[in-house]
Amino acid sequence: MSDRLTEDVTKFQGRFSALKAEVGKVLVGQDEMLHRLLLGMLAGGHVLLEGVPGLAKTLVIRTLADALDGTFSRIQFTPDMLPGDVVGTQIYNPREGSYTVKKGPVFGNFILADEINRAPAKVQSALLEAMQEKQVTLGDQTFKLTEPFLVLATQNPIEQEGTYPLPEAQLDRFMLKVKVGYPTKDEEFKIIDRMAGAGAEPTASKVMGTDEILAARDVVRQVFVDDKVKRYAVDLVAATRDPRAAGLASLAPLIDNGASVRATISLIKVAKAQALLSGRSYISPHDVKTIAHDVLRHRLLVSYEAEAQGKTTDHVIAQILENVPVP
Length: 327
Known about the structure:
- The structure is a single chain.
- By secondary structure, this protein is an alpha/beta fold.
- 45% of the residues lie in helices and 17% in strands.
- The longest helix has 22 residues, at 3-24.
């Protein structure tokens, strides 16, 4: 392990700690949600936040964008939206007999896709090319998106009125799916003081540029991964596809579809980011276990039998983590 890599890891751990502290001037609690957003940013992946309305999902993303020197776009998804409202469209000029391109709000560094599952599937899928290929095609023209390009989406639980489940292909494009819970009583008390007190609501100042994010990603890519840890990640994902081969026959009736290869890649990428934020230039099996739920929960499809038993993807993942040997 080179001394230069260790120095870079220490430097960026400090920079991201400063970013966390700046966002913390506005946000009370929800440290886990903020941490997961930073992991997605470092690993170069998109993040989906799920929780009931009013849990500061939009606030944390907006505050994070305020603290970063990049372009920010907010897209409020609604049932009457069209794909062009997201990616843009071509406008015909009859006088000149030509088309001009009007770019949509997806052209930015940080895209808040608010309540993404309130729009129909054709609108949700308009993001697919942008999220995976980092480009948008309008007519016969293809436009590259500026890096860093990060979609930070929020969704309400699908049991809520007026929601459309995200297609599997769309879900798989998200590197992390984070479940957002209620704050503690003490945190809620502080929220009242901060947001409903006599003074002005706090705001975040810019503390980091997009060039630093790209430089930090280069360092993350250099974080060392031992073959044993790679094998552990492969074993975890393989267990979602063939539980019997992993000695978990009881899980087989609960899983309809296991996780894709993209899940294995994401496990390692996010574990590398986790190592950097922990100040290490190598990843440990614990890094993989820590982020496994967020990487895998939206990539498994549980069976009707599992739903009948009240078993969720998180239950399945927990069983796999307990039983797959840790190197």
